[in-house]
Sequence to fold (687 residues):
Amino acid sequence: MTPFFKLAPLTVAMISVFPFAATAQTAAPATQLPEVKVTAKKDASLTQPNIDTAKAEMAKVAGGTNIIDAETFREGRVSTFSDTLGMATGVLAQSRFGAEETRLSIRGSGLQRTFHLRGIKLMQDGVQINQADGGGDFQSIEPLATRYIEVFRGANALRYGASTLGGAVNFVSPTGHDAPKLELRAETGSYGYQRLGFATGGVSDNGVVDYFLSGSTFDQNGFRDHAGQSAQRMNGNVGYRISDDIETRFYVGYAKSDSFLPGSLTMAQLRANPRQANPSTVSGNNKRDIEVFRVANKTTIRLGDNRIELGAWYADKTLFHPIFQVLDQQNADYGLDLRYIANGKLFGYANEFVLGFAPSRGTTRDDRFTNVGGQRGARTNKLYQVANNIELYGENRLRLNDQFTVIAGLQYTRATRKNRDEFFAAGQDESFNVSYTGTSPKIGVLYQATPSVQWFANLSRSYEPPSFGELTGGLTPNINRAQRGGTLEVGSRGQSRDVDWDVSVYHARLRNELLQSRVFVAGNSGAAAPQTTNADSTIHSGVELGLTARLPGKFEWRNNLLINHFRFDGDRQFGNNTLPGVPKVLLRGELLHRDGAGFYAGPTIEAAGDYPIDMSNSVNAPGYTIFGFKLGHQVKRGMSWFVEARNLADKKYVSTTGVIRNLGGADSAQFLPGDGRSVYAGIQWRQ
Fold:
């Protein structure tokens, strides 16, 4: 472990004094958190709040939340979730091999899930991207078609019906009211990287109809062999203002993403040549090809100070995925989201109440074959899967005075997972029909110390039924229990003349955590298949710190620091071992000089501590520190450019890893190398 990471306890002590230090300087703050009673700039759209309204809503949450303005990540390359969410407080977003593919986790959600997504409700415009069983993919999200991103960590996402440990992430699109008439953007760079995008939007003369449309293409050869990727996306929405108090908005999205998979390397292979692919992935022509079509509608009805929000969505997805076997899947998912928000008085105090109902259903035709050079061989299985969910949730926010607000909430979840085996290999029927029922209460308090400083605390429970990835994702079905947990969180956020901060400290105790590891497949060139099991008891504790400091000389210092302490709790096999797969410390930061005329330039840093990759803690992924540099300029109204260099020292490092139960200290092909030295450039024009 590098000396830097031995300073973690000191770091915690230092960040704990930021709210006190900043409070003394709030006589003339540059910006302020909006107070609950302050009304943000009036929204032009009822269905799609502007960023000012979104920030005001975030300031009412008694827990870890944040808004990412898309203009901040547009100052560099916009490709992976690491590009868009890497500086978001509390978010771990690690690229798996350069572009598109990302490992996303909040508070250890989906801790060993090194592919796809689980444990976080991913949304676009408030409509879920996840499939009905809770699993999901990132490929349908286009960051360039985003105005801002909402991040709700943990139970703070209850207003969107999320009861997962990780919470929710919502990508919010522009509307015709805040979109440019025309936007063109082009990015290029190392390893054959090319991205083109356009967007347009507008409002009818009478203001009744508005529209937004975007399209993009992406191609990259990749840093590693057998890592080429390409994607094409279209996204759009059309809003119709039926009256001053009623608006409906239709959304449509299409994404096609084709990705070759270079696989994991041993540490010896990575040190010798990080650009090589795992030979088994080349011989098996491993890849993941996804095509998604989504439609949705949101309708908002305003009833004085109250409102009703009605939503419906449908998604059709196909997956062709040769790995240790060929997965050929067709998914159809659909659901409703009904929400009532009431503002009034309770016991004489200002009160806001939210009641929501979100049923969903998804079907999957899961065909499996032997992998013959990336093509379908003999059939090995044929499954028909159905996921049904009913989520009913309520949250009440009671404002006792100008300083104290008490928030209480409760969610009820009923989920069924049905698997019908339509191909009995070796006479084995793998059918099952299981159900999961749970309730997730929460209570929190928000203290407005000054107009620009808030303190908060909350106590909550989480409940996560397994997805089909946790039930049938291995060689044979494994019927797991639902993951349950309780989390205590305290923190503060605020702004002063020189410092903005967002800090949370949390402690979660989990039962039946869904932990995935890999088992080796005999006769398949050493390939490993995922297998998920329930752990008896685990603990997730950590610190989430987002910090922006305005320094002398027109410098701005931004940081996202994660300190993770995840471990087993008296496990029969692993005792109190550290849970593998996630760095104990992760820091991303940048120090940019801004001249006030649109020019910015400065270094960037990414640093991670070491961490175990097996549950027995016998093998570690080494820590790393890499540096970059970026500069750019808003040349004139509508025109901007950037140049960004990454990993300037061309360091060989581990970006993320697989997870094994027990390696016994042996080197294993579990390491995914990060990109070498690279340079990217882009130009953007808006009208």
Notes: The chain is about 5% helix and 55% strand. Confidence is low (pLDDT under 50) at residues 1-41, 521-526. The longest strand covers residues 375-399. The helical segments are 8-15, 18-23, 51-58, 70-73, 81-85, 267-272, 279-283, 468-471.
